[in-house]
Amino acid sequence: AEGAGFDLLTGLRSLVRQDPEVILIGEIRDADAAAVALQAALTGQLVLTTFHATDAAVAVSRLGEMGIPPYAIRSGVRTVVSQRLLRRLCTCAKPDADGAAAKVLRLESLGLSPAGVRTPHGCERCRHTGYAGRLAVAEVLNVDCPSVGEAILARKDAAAVRAAAAEAGTIGLLQRALRLASEGVTSPEEVMRVFGIAPVASL
């Protein structure tokens, strides 16, 4: 539709003028689209959208980098949900007998029991991959939380926003993934692959 002079930004602005109750935007890709989405949210519409970022705190920080004022982020954004997909271990998975896989992620130092850790094996059912299906791992950043809101208004970076959320009880993506590994739902190798963790990395 861009050839007809009707792009995403034009469509968004036209949609906002119709005063809908809910607006669904496939993806925010630039500062102009972000500004229109926040404008709609600030005038009372419920806006649902997607945004590429490594986690919820980075998404909030990136909105600031796009030129969205902190007060607009604080007032217009209610919740940010970040998710990753992990492969689920097949029933043929084997226990981590020597504890080597658990040691790579240092589960005990994080207060997680390594007793339930399993590693991929492979069978006919999973086509010898060791995995069968996927599961979503998600974190929820509540911008209404006072400490998170204060960090946003103070223009703090993603690390500070993440720390404020953690203090308020938010469980991060990596922590959720590590818990699933400790319970034998997925493997330490899969957590390392999805989160880009090297064997010698400090968590």
Task: Give a quick rundown of the structure.
The protein is an alpha+beta fold.
What attributes characterize this protein structure?
two-stranded parallel sheet, two-stranded antiparallel ribbon, elongated, 203 residues, 9 helices, alpha+beta
SSE inventory with pairings:
Layout: H1 8-17, E1 22-25, H2 31-42, E2 46-49, H3 56-65, H4 70-76, E3 79-89, E4 94-95, H5 100-105, E5 118-119, E6 131-142, H6 146-153, H7 158-167, H8 173-182, H9 188-195
Parallel strand pairs: 1-2
Antiparallel strand pairs: 3-6, 4-5
Helix pairs in contact: 1-2, 2-4, 3-7, 6-7
What can you see in these coordinates?
It contains nine helices and six strands. The protein has 203 residues and is of the alpha+beta class. The radius of gyration is 21 Å and the shape is elongated. 40% of the residues lie in helices and 17% in strands. Helix 2 links the parallel strand 1 and strand 2.
